[in-house]
Amino acid sequence: MTLSEEKIIYDERIMKLAVFSKALSHPARIKILQYMEKNSCCYVGDIVKFIPLAQSTISQHIKELKTSGLINSFQESQKTKYCINWSNWQYAKALFNNIFR
Amino acid sequence: MTLSEEKIIYDERIMKLAVFSKALSHPARIKILQYMEKNSCCYVGDIVKFIPLAQSTISQHIKELKTSGLINSFQESQKTKYCINWSNWQYAKALFNNIFR
DNA sequence: TACATTTATCGTAATTTTGCGATTAAAACA
DNA sequence: TGTTTTAATCGCAAAATTACGATAAATGTA
């Protein structure tokens, strides 16, 4: 990044795979996803009870999962419900299947 | 890590999945793996020609892939040959398949 | 023997990640 | 209305990641 000052361009699918992989690269985030898969959705409080990390830390991990596109959120008055984003989930599945072909 | 000073213990499969995901969480490393998959193996120099990053940076990425267990290395006099570690590759495939079930 | 090739490693800087406690904001409830 | 519940965000510190150039070590070649 010194000589050219240009960022390398990677193709779209590689970037998506990197983003999904990064989402999965922390064990707490894997546990959160597993919980959501099993229970279809969750609230932040469920995960706080499930994983021994501070509420703010759990919130941050969930935010990252959301940024990756693997989950989305629905406002339910005072609570926020988080669920797997199944279309991106399928996309991720396809990308991982493709590389581990 | 302040109150308890104890690290959370995650189960073995979750940790492995996190490690494999981290390996895949950088686009350059994905490209390296794709190159190796196609060409069965590679030398550092091949990747330096393939991806516009400094040789030291490529070396670092390859080292990380090796640490993750997804690749291994064989010394060939002055060159080092890197190849996919197929048994761990299969293991990774199974873990990703399992979570994206 | 001198030089070239190949890769690893060191030192460094910039950025990102991880984790926490404290605080805030909004809705629900008594 | 005051209190509780739920979750987001801020500020901060420690650690890890990413990238580079410089250098070193080992082998091959002229």
Description:
- Two copies of one chain form a homodimer.
- By secondary structure, chain A is an alpha+beta fold.
- The first copy, chain A, has a single domain, classed as Arc Repressor Mutant, subunit A (Orthogonal Bundle), CATH 1.10.10.
- A three-stranded antiparallel sheet of chain A has the order 1-3-2.
- In chain A, helix 3 crosses helix 4.
- The longest helix of chain A has 14 residues.
- The first copy, chain A, starts with 11 loop residues before the first helix and ends with a helix.
- The mean pLDDT of chain A is 94.
- At the A-B interface, helix 1, helix 2 and helix 5 of A face helix 1, helix 2 and helix 5 of B.
- Chain A binds a DNA duplex (30 and 30 nucleotides) through helix 4.
Regarding quaternary structure, what we see is homodimer
Which segments of chain A are poorly predicted (pLDDT under 50) over 5 or more consecutive residues?
Answer: none
CATH superfamily of chain A, please?
Winged helix-like DNA-binding domain superfamily/Winged helix DNA-binding domain
Query: What is the residue-mean pLDDT of chain A, rounded to a whole number?
Result: 94
Number of helices of chain A: 5
Task: Considering residues with a beta carbon less than 8 A from a beta carbon on another chain, report the largest interface and each chain's count.
Answer: A-B, 30 and 31 residues
CATH topology type of chain A: Arc Repressor Mutant, subunit A
Query: What is the first-to-last residue Cα distance of chain A?
Result: 33 Å
Strand content of chain A: 5-15%
Q: Give me the side-by-side strand order of the main sheet of chain A.
A: 1-3-2
Rg from Cα of chain A: 16 Å
Estimated helix fraction of chain A: 55-70%
Kindly name the structural category of chain A: alpha+beta
Number of strands of chain A: 3
SSE order of chain A: HHEHHEEH
Summed up, the domain count of chain A is: 1
Shape of chain A: globular
Major sheet size, sense and barrel closure of chain A: 3 strands, antiparallel
